[in-house]
Amino acid sequence: DQQVKQNSPSLSVQEGRISILNCDYTNSMFDYFLWYKKYPAEGPTFLISISSIKDKNEDGRFTVFLNKSAKHLSLHIVPSQPGDSAVYFCAASAIRGGSEKLVFGKGTKLTVNP
Amino acid sequence: DVKVTQSSRYLVKRTGEKVFLECVQDMDHENMFWYRQDPGLGLRLIYFSYDVKMKEKGDIPEGYSVSREKKERFSLILESASTNQTSMYLCASSLSTGANYGYTFGSGTRLTVV
Asked: Which of B37, B47, B94, B95 would you mutate first to test chain A, the one with the most A CBs within 10 A?
């Protein structure tokens, strides 16, 4: 049972346009959501996060939107740059026994074309 | 600024060999994790540890074991490597404070079993 779903394995956009990456979750107990970015042959790096009590968080070109009623979040990248080409993982967090446990989606490969 | 270090970036091992993947973190984190990443399957949790000498199975523990003798070090062991264990292996660590801080990942070890 996949609790965090990224239904688009890949996405291709033109440089300068908006990239929108989507993520759906099933467990209403998640209280924090994160996006990680991963280049080939490197480990994932933290990009941006949002608490479940908020509906938007912005950091430069990156904005994450959370729709709790729909159990859906999205990552917007504006404007997209070729260096943004990477695999993006959505993750949901819950505190279990005093420790944080992340559940990851399968990732979306973003390609930004010059 | 080194945080999570995996001892090898690339490894090639023969079928049946015993393989050790080492991970060290310098952030005094309580929690440590081992994932493998495969195309189309995302990040799959193999084992994790919330404390020294403590370990718990993740989603795909078969064929693997772990060791955590010191807080900063978490080792993944392939008892008898097989070709289906060819993968990118990622180590991660996190705080155990009951708060949502996400994970810090190492750079990964690309293991090829021939």
From this structure: B37
Q: Do residues B92 and B104 touch, judged by C-beta distance below 8 A?
A: yes
pLDDT tens digits, one per residue of A32-71: 899 999 998 889 999 999 999 999 999 999 999 999 999 9
Question: Of B16, B13, B25, which Cα lies nearest the Cα of B104?
Answer: B25
Q: Which residue type, as a one-letter code, is found at position A36?
A: Y
The pLDDT confidence band at residue A2, using thresholds 50, 70 and 90, is confident
Instruction: Let me know how many helices (H) and strands (E) chain A has, helices first.
Output: 0, 11
A91 touching B (Cβ < 8 Å): yes
Q: Which residues contact A91 (CB under 8 A, 6 or more apart)?
A: A4, A33, A34, A35, A36, A102, A103, A104, A105, B102
pLDDT, tens digit (0-9, with 9 covering 90-100), for B37-95: 998 888 999 999 988 988 999 989 999 999 999 999 999 999 999 999 999 999 999 88
Contact A106 B40 (CB under 8 A): yes
| Res. A6: pLDDT tops 70 | yes
CA angle B58, B63, B66 (to 5 degrees): 60
Encoded tokens for B101: 């801080």
User: Residues near B39 by Cβ (< 8 Å), separated by ≥ 6?
Assistant: none
Distant-in-sequence, close-in-space partners of B73: CB < 8 Å, separation ≥ 6: B22, B23, B24
> Under an 8 A CB cutoff, do B98 and A95 touch?
yes
